[in-house]
Amino acid sequence: MAVVESKEMVFKVSKVSTTPIDGQKPGTSGLRKKVKVFIQPHYLQNFVQSTFNALTPEKVRGATLVVSGDGRYFSKDAIQIIIKMSAANGVRRVWVGQNGLLSTPAVSAVIRERVGVDGSKATGAFILTASHNPGGPHEDFGIKYNMENGGPAPEAITDKIFENTKTITEYLIAEDLPNIDISTIGVANFSGPEGQFDVEVFDSASDYVKLMKSIFDFELIRKLLSSSKFTFCYDALHGVAGAYAHRIFVEELGAQESSLLNCVPKEDFGGGHPDPNLTYAKELVARMGLGKSDSAVDPPEFGAAADGDADRNMILGKRFFVTPSDSVAIIAANAVNAIPYFSSGLKGVARSMPTSAALDVVAKNLNLKFFEVPTGWKFFGNLMDAGLCSICGEESFGTGSDHIREKDGIWAVLAWLSILAFKNKENLNGDKLVTVEDIVRQHWAIYGRHYYTRYDYENVDAGAAKDLMAYLVKLQSSLDEINSSVKGARSDVSNVVNADEFEYKDPVDGSVSKHQGIRFLFEDGSRLVFRLSGTGSEGATIRLYIEQYEKDSSKTGRDSQEALAPLVEVALKLSKMLEFTGRSAPTVIT
């Protein structure tokens, strides 16, 4: 480890006067705004100081903090500001991934697993990301704080942060501390009023790769990837996953360099939208044979994509899309046999409420503990910390396990490669490999199929979105009125038997989360769910989830949009989507 000579420079702590700035309420994914908002004077500083003030003193003074992110525009400036504020607030050391890059799952792994040369362990992290949202001078930036378990700050902390932002009058910063060269691995040492302060820049991938190798059978996966019959494609969408892709897939697992797409991290994600779905991962979708135009080139057997901070994933087979809801169910169904980490069994499984019930059926068949939680990874984290959950997932392309306390996109890809390697370990010299599509269809044959789609209406007028949701809540008071609307739209759709707002009582800490989504549950097991999403930086996003269960194996091969068309028609009429929003079509369909 190189040491940057700093001659034990003594820095001074400045108290800078400030005033509260409106709109600094962190959501389940932290604080996300346009870059132009974050670069306002004192904006970032107010939020960081409010976070320090929300933590107990031992989590700040003398502590070790991680500061890194997905590398989006403004990250490098933000890292320097947070380092200087950490020094001024009495933090003992800051760990920074080289070039400021650490995926969100890697941050969680570093907090939980990394031990410094002096025996130090991190107690928290500032993660700089706006996840799957675009980056660049005119796009999005974000910041969130993760706790000592590696997971997002709980509501008690984020509420304190928000309250602090409304009353803040000053922040502490070591303005004379020089900027750190975060491109070079090494340690910079300084002295301040409270003693020594160090900044260590470390390799972004090593700790995470070590963890992955302890979970999966890399040798078995390598045999699959080296087979002439198996072809592979991974698209990082110019996000931080690129900092791990070459190390894991090429160096460790022997994939061809040409199998990596868009794996150079860029501040603006190459001008694209780093959201791994069929709409935005255009290049991968085309390469996998799912584009609008036919390609003469035979698609790879397996494809996957990541979002900006590498916590989300999309799984594709040759000309075949795997829904995130099916993905987590299939991983859970095969984990004990295919993934060494789970060889002794699963503690339990969980999904977010809007996610399809495919995982429920697996849990019932395998006699596993099962939990349905609100959207937000912290709910899974509580279950995992209590030893109740091994594998979990959400329909928004997030899948993970109890190895960390964040969803983990590369973990999900390695889980799928493990399943494929296990299914084909005696078949690599045979006539035909077991494919992604084969695995999914075999799963449907055993457990039934949950036809599922999500309609996203992005950047809707916030007032109109709230009016639509209020209308649906009011409508729920009369099942007769609901079913009248249903039958008026489609007589072939079954009746609604229950309508409610999802509410969750945490079995671990007893906390209650209300207003977590509006549900319409049908007699035949179908569901309609409406939610307002907090992941955008402006306006509102209305998410509409549509699900229909089919256990007759002769009917599980239909086109999803065709099978769901009657329910879609009902949902749009029931919600008066066009009247409230003026939108005749969603922004994205997944």
From TrEMBL:
Its cofactor is Mg(2+). One of its GO terms (biological process) is glucose metabolic process. Residues 24-171, 207-316, 325-425 form the Alpha-D-phosphohexomutase alpha/beta/alpha domain. Keywords: Carbohydrate metabolism, Glucose metabolism, Isomerase, Magnesium, Metal-binding, Phosphoprotein. InterPro entries: A-D-PHexomutase_a/b/a-I, A-D-PHexomutase_a/b/a-I/II/III, A-D-PHexomutase_a/b/a-II, A-D-PHexomutase_a/b/a-III, A-D-PHexomutase_C_sf, A-D-PHexomutase_CS, Alpha-D-phosphohexomutase_SF, PGM. Belongs to the phosphohexose mutase family. This is phosphoglucomutase (alpha-D-glucose-1,6-bisphosphate-dependent). It comes from Gossypium darwinii (Darwin's cotton).
